[in-house]
Amino acid sequence: MENKKIKKYLKIIITCVIVGLFVWFLLLRPYLQFKGNEDKFLKAAKRYYEVYPNELPSGSRVGTVTLKELAHKSFLTEDLYVPYSNDTCSIEESWVKVRKEDGEYKYYTYLKCGVLSSIVDHKGPEITLKGEEEITINKGEEYEELGVESVIDNSDGKMSTKDVVIDSSEVKTDQIGTYEVKYTIADSLDNETVKIRTVNVVQRLKNTVLNDTENTGVYTGTGVSNYIRFSNILFRIIDVDGDNVRIVTSDDIANVNYDAIDDWLEYFKDHLTDEAKKYLVENTHCTDTLTEENVSTTKECSSNSKANTYNILSAQDINKTLDEAGESYLYPATISWLANSKNEEEAWATKIRFINYDAQNMVNGQNYMAFDKDYNFGIRPVLTIKGDEVIKSGDGTEDNPYSLEETTKGKANDNLNTRYSGEYLEYSGYIWRIMEVAKDNSIKVIMEDTLQQGDFSSGIAYETTDESKIYDPTQRGNIGYVINQKTGDYINSGYFVNKKIEVPIYKNLVKYNEESTTKEYTVRFAAPNMYEMFTSSANTTGSYWLINSSREVERKYMVSDNGVVYYDKLSDRTTSYARIVGYLNKNCKILSGSGTKQDPYQIVK
Question: DSSP assignment of 237-306, as one string?
């Protein structure tokens, strides 16, 4: 029995010893070491003020000396360590403050050593702002200071909001950027708090248009800086429409017959990026039937299309943009269709200048003419996008258009086939544009300008005896044969792949989605199809042949050097240059560049 009692007492004693050691090593010893450090810190501070009595504060002011300063000036000759650690106490956050109270100086020590810190008021007041801590304003708007809701300190209690110093001097509302407004206050022990309100100065699309147009919402005249890059395509801003903004491609994208415009616009929409489509909103569009008397003057619309996400310009759109001299940035160098019909057989088209011939005289300066709806003329899609979207970059000029940055740029080592329709690249000394990525991941591209070297230097013609000059890459003397066989002599064809293409063959007139038959050929290079993306251009240095052909004698198609499709029959002697279409290898990668015309991608395989 006695042995059991002895063992029990021994267990209790051992337990107490262990607990005591635990308390000593984990609590008491670190605490005593910390208090010793705190005492050394305070004594060093007092010596500092003995040496520098002029540093002692007067009145109600508070003097502060940091651990860093005491160590730097050798008032502390040893480092203060966190207990059981080789880490030193914080030299930035540790301080001794002094102020005069009842005629004597009183010292307050705050030492921070790891998880241990002095029990003294070391926190600044808590500032609560009125409104949000992050606000967004439009470029050009005046910054309105919302102020402070309350200030509460853990020692001094509720403080006056009037004592908060507000510094908004950094906010520049005339420049896009992120700025800070600083709210500063200190408690009676000079513990300071700085609260930050973030101010984002942005350029919203709608507000930008309103600012540019003196709140009319409509750009007028020529030379206006209203370019915007959207879905990798250069557009011009037309106007503000309610809460939204309408834009139109700066140039024709392709050529199409009037009655097929809606079908072609569906094709165009499919080539917009998925991200760009999220910015689109449905909108109606003017489709009035206009006469010779009112086409150039009317600005009002009495008949609208059903709401959708795409349209084309109307005569009313252009007439609203005319300046006092009758000029508008919307008049194209090409001939472009308008949404307005003249009658059942004819529709209106526009051009920067038509020359109208009649038996008596030549009228120069006409901007509207009616044409048979079977003709293939330029098409410039109109989109409506959300007006509250933020312009992320650009200044509206052609070289630096506005951008919503809805599509990210390609990076070095990205596969080219991950990029999008509309982007530019440079290869073999020429600028090319991505038309689309094929199902086999090769990249269909079109040369931005015409090829005018060697066999192509004076243009090429159909030199065959067949009455119908149908595009055929296998027939000698055919322009299709010359383009496929000779292009590789002047362009490095190493990155291009052979591809099976379809040549549309029409019975009479060439019309969108109405080809009667097709023929397949395997080629490396071909002419463009007038109905595909970016096949129209008013910027080439020469005319160029199209792949479209007809069984009707002499019904061949080419684009003139000002971007207009010849709609009359062309003789066998007609020559034109070649604008090359090909498919780049799916393994091509981006080496550098940003995909714009000014900074095209450089590629490597």
Answer: EEEEETTEEEEEESS--EEEEGGGHHHHHHHHHHTS-HHHHTTB--B--B-----TTTTTT----S-BPP
- DSSP label at residue 600: P
Distance in angstroms (rounded) separating the CA atoms of residues 136 and 63: 40
- The arithmetic mean of pLDDT across residues 55-84, rounded, is 92
In the block, residue with structure tokens 């506005």 = 402
For 312, phi and psi rounded to 5 degrees?
-130, 170
Q: Which residue has the tokens 């080219």?
A: 416
At 474-523, the pLDDT tens digits run 999 999 999 999 999 999 999 999 999 999 999 889 999 887 789 999 99
Q: C-alpha angle with apex 472: 471 to 475, nearest 5 degrees? A: 130
- Written as one letter, the residue type at 92 is E
For 210, left (φ over 0), alpha (ψ -120 to 50), or beta? alpha
Q: How far apart are CA 21 and CA 429, in angstroms?
A: 82
8 Å CB contact between 233 and 422: yes
Contact 410, 244 (CB under 8 A): no
What is the per-residue pLDDT across 237-287, written as a single tens digit (0 to 9) for each?
Answer: 999 999 999 999 999 999 999 999 999 999 999 999 999 999 999 999 888
- Picking from 543, 539, 508, the residue whose alpha carbon sits closest to that of residue 527 is 543
Half-sphere exposure of 317 (CA within 13 A, CB side): 29
Residues making up the chain, counted from first to last: 605
Global confidence as pTM: 0.80
Q: Is the CB of residue 252 less than 8 Å from the CB of residue 313?
A: no
Side-chain half-sphere of 151: how many Cα atoms within 13 Å? 22
285 contacts 338 by C-beta, under 8 angstroms: no
110 has which bridge partners? 95
CA distances from 376 to 340, 510, 557 (A): 16, 8, 10
Three-state secondary-structure class, residue 524: coil
At residue 330, what is the residue type? L
Domains in the chain, start-ordered, CATH in brackets? 33-117 (no CATH), 126-202 (2.60.40.10), 213-391 (no CATH), 409-604 (no CATH)
Judged against a pLDDT cut of 90, whether residue 110 lies above it is answered with yes
Going by C-alpha positions, the residue among 561, 560, 503 that lies closest to residue 532 is 503
The sheet carrying 63-66 orders its strands as: 63-66, 95-101, 104-110
Q: Which residues contact 288 (CB under 8 A, 6 or more apart)?
A: 298, 301, 302, 303, 314, 315, 316, 340
DSSP line for 306-375 = PPBSEEE--HHHHHHT--TTS-BTT--SS-EEEEEESSSSEEEEEEEEEEEE-SS-EEEEEEEEEEETTS
Q: At residue 80, what is the residue type?
A: L
